[in-house]
Design brief:
The chain is globular, with a radius of gyration of 19 Å. It has a seven-stranded mixed beta sheet, with helices on both faces. A two-stranded antiparallel sheet has the order 6-7. The protein is an alpha/beta fold and 300 residues long. Helix 3 crosses helix 4. The two termini are 33 Å apart.
């Protein structure tokens, strides 16, 4: 076994130890991690603060308070994710206390055209993966880690029964298309910044953001229904939500489709800004010839 692969398995072993802790303890540790991150003004803290300032979502003082809340939520989400990755599926599904909008999922499945799940980075999306895989084969698009050990770890963490991992590469359309043709389900994050050529610039919280066009392209070509899905943390666990996607997401005009998609992600994020992934550099790439600079310049 190569050293890099061994290290990935070793990290999973450590994650499993943390994953065995009670949920309350995991959330407390996560909150403390977020608090410590703020004290040291880490990269993630700086990115979150810059996102709020860049989007004019809060004034300087309000942004500072919001960032602290976001970091506590981010820390809790990390420990909750370790739990989901390392525990049996039945234990994970027990964390789901309520399911809202299940009729939208059933209506989409009834069309028998396959199903595209748009899963924004809100709440714990790893728990969502567990739920969808409990229903049948779920092909999931994921970004391959740069390090071999990272890929080993992630494949072991996510590679449960019925989960098919599809690398986010230029040829990702083909296996997803085949899955939909067979009546299967695919999961794609709509708020991941693609490379130039892999998306369209569309407004997101008032600023142009290079937006993944894979979901609209796949939806238009396959005519498979699109359902937004996400979890939301509660005192006892999580609530799971399903929402029918805006019909414009199937539009052949990718600008119209991506605008509709971003608007729906925005609405979900606004449910509780603390539970959205603000530590991600969403606006790194700027529209060509716009003269705009990378807003995260200097943040490392």
């Amino acid at each position: 076994m190569k050293t890099s692969a061994w290290f990935g398995h070793f990290l999973f072993f450590l994650a499993a130890i943390v994953g065995r802790l009670p949920l309350a303890a995991q959330r407390w540790l996560g909150g403390m991690l977020g608090f410590i991150s703020c004290q040291f003004d880490t990269r993630e803290v700086k990115v979150a603060r810059r996102n709020f300032e860049y989007n004019d979502l809060a004034g300087a003082n309000e942004a500072d308070v919001l960032v602290k809340s976001v970091m506590r939520s981010t820390g809790r989400n990390l420990f909750e994710t370790l739990r989901v990755w390392t525990r049996p599926r039945k234990d994970n599904l027990a964390l789901i206390k309520n399911i809202r909008g299940l009729e939208h999922l059933h209506a989409a499945q009834a069309q028998k055209k396959g199903l595209i799940i748009a899963a924004p980075h809100y709440g714990n999306w790893e728990l969502l993966i567990e739920y969808m895989a409990s229903l049948g084969t779920f092909a999931l698009v994921y970004r391959v880690p740069e390090k071999k050990w990272g890929d080993v770890f992630l494949r072991r963490a996510r590679g449960g029964e019925n989960v098919v991992l599809v690398p986010a590469e230029t040829n990702a359309m083909r296996p997803l298309w085949k899955t939909l043709q067979a009546g299967g389900m695919v999961g794609i994050t709509p708020d991941q910044q693609p490379k130039f050529g892999g998306g369209e610039f569309a407004p997101f919280f008032g600023k142009q953001a290079l937006t993944l066009s894979l979901i609209p392209k796949l939806a238009e070509r396959s005519q498979a229904p699109v359902v937004f899905a996400y979890t939301e943390a509660t005192a006892e666990g999580f609530d799971l939500f399903f929402e029918a996607a805006d019909a414009r997401i199937h539009d052949r005009d990718l600008l119209i489709a991506t605008q509709a998609m971003n608007a729906q992600v925005e609405t979900i994020a606004k449910r509780d800004l603390r539970q959205y992934q603000w530590t991600y550099k969403r606006y790194t790439l700027r529209p060509p010839k716009s003269g705009e600079r990378n807003p995260y310049k200097g943040i490392r």
